[in-house]
Amino acid sequence: MLDPLTLFNLNPEVADDAALHGLQLLVGFTGFAEAGHVVSQIRDELLENLEHDVVASFDSDQLIDYRARRPQISFVEDHLADYEPPQLNLYRMYDGLGEPFLFLTGFEPDVQWERFAAAVVHLARTFDVEMMSWIHSIPMPVPHTRPVGVTVHGNRPDLMAGISAWRPQAQIQAAVGHVLELRLTQAGFDVVGHAMHVPHYLAEAEFPPAAVAGLEYLGAAASLVLPTDRLREAGRDVERQIAQQVEASAEVKGVVATLEKRYDEYAESTVRRSLLVKDNDELADAEELGAAVEAYLASPQAEEESEALRPETTADTTEDAETGGNADASGQAGTSEQADTSGPFDQGTGPKN
């Protein structure tokens, strides 16, 4: 293996800051099997809304196959402009409460996965990373009318128990995030991954509700306050378009109804973990119970249940509640008044590098 330390360059203005040590590390790669373009939406949301600076930049020329995944360039009348080379950077960011964390994001490397993983392990050791929380998305036979599901994996049972909507045993195509999870686990780091479930019939389009749920799960795992307002609004608009197109097609309506039935049957058989009982079935003490309640209140599940229990008075009151900051993780609250003749069933958006 070539020296992994030559894969990246540190930003000398930031990398020597002692405040970089002991932070949470969030990770998300665009490209492979990015159902609903979840990581792309999360990346854009964080970069556009949170204060950040670059800690390290990876060398794209060593990691990407340009002929397999060509970058975008603009042709403006008689000249070329706005060439956008792929980027893979490690950022320092500050959440909504000013708490710093690290965010590794960009294109998924096409080659040299083990060398790349070794470089990330080196950076994790250098900055004494507390835990890596990473996000990806997969197409699933689930309806868009139900809360967004997630499969959680890693080596932190306390952050995984009672959350996964689907716990299979299967051979899957690996992504570089899976390799990172294995190598960081072997290096002694805490790791938790979240595979967001995107309705398979919406996998090629942007599906904001899955991105909202992903941000909430990442925030809960890493104890961070991450922005979701803009994606919630986008999710309401997307769901309005979906509803219109489902209503216009008896065939699509039948498919969604079948998926809803299967989802509900599976959900009824799922046992929810009690906050009052520890993993060894002993009753939790006051301190443990308080910590569990705080974790629950920060979870998407709590928001979903609070929305379901909120009394409906007038139409205006309901609309105000739905458009507030406590919309559920499925992003189904509220509607948009803006009309659009196209929708998720008509076209998707291409992957972003």
Summarize the model shown.
The chain has 353 residues and is of the alpha/beta class.
Describe the structure.
The chain has 353 residues and is of the alpha/beta class. The protein has a domain at 4-250: Rossmann fold (3-Layer(aba) Sandwich), CATH 3.40.50.10900. Helix content is 36%, strand content 19%. It is built from eleven helices and ten strands. The longest helix is centred in the last third of the chain and has 19 residues, at 229-247. Residues 332-341 have a biased composition (Polar residues). InterPro entries: Proteasome_assmbl_chaperone_2, PSMG2_sf, Rv2714-like. This is PAC2 family protein. It holds the Pfam family PAC2.
CATH architecture label of the domain at 4-250: 3-Layer(aba) Sandwich
Q: Secondary-structure element sequence? A: EEHEHEEEEHEEHHEHHHHHH
Shape: globular
- Percentage of residues in strands: 15-25%
In CATH terms, what is the fold-level topology of the domain at 4-250? Answer: Rossmann fold
End-to-end Cα distance, whole Å, is 26 Å
* Secondary structure tally: strands: 10
The CATH superfamily of the domain at 4-250 is known as PAC-like subunit
What is the SS-derived class? alpha/beta
The total count of helices amounts to 11
- Rg calc: 21 Å
Spans of at least 5 consecutive residues whose pLDDT stays below 50 are 272-278, 308-342, 347-353
Mean pLDDT, as a whole number?
Answer: 82
